[in-house]
Please model this.
Amino acid sequence: MGDQFNAEEVLKMAEQIERNGQEFYRNASNVIDDFEVSKLLSDLAEWEKGHEALFASMRMELTEEEKTQTAIDPYCEAALYLKAMADNHVFKQETGESLAKFEEDKNTEKIIDLAIQFEKDSLLFFLGLERMVSHRLGKEKVYGIIDEEIGHIAYLEKQRNRLNSR
Model:
């Protein structure tokens, strides 16, 4: 890997993170007894699925320059590295609280808090990557991903406030 990423590499990571999010939200939805919260989490899984499709579409529309390799990679190790980064960074990291714990106490507040934390981690991940993508290699695409993640956090915060006031 070079010291820079291109938009294609970042979008591939974004797609994987969205898949991880779908899995988290589907599993969380199945754990929670509260129908309203379960539906919210199920809806978020679908939202993540839509974002995965959006990012895949964005990737398909990239220019050749935005796909320019930033390092020589004869063994395609970059793809494995990027997948590992996305798989192990957001929604999959060790949190100290597994879904099994939520199965025990069915704490909706904790699962919403965890979802918000994962979305914040995702935002920070892409903010860090943004510095490693030049304008020539598609920095604007990374800004689009960041905007989507900010929207996730805002939506979850609104839902948490609404749920807390009921």
Q: What stands out?
A: Residues 10 and 150 are 17 Å apart (CA to CA). The chain is about 70% helix and 0% strand. Confidence is low (pLDDT under 50) at residues 93-97. The radius of gyration is 17 Å.
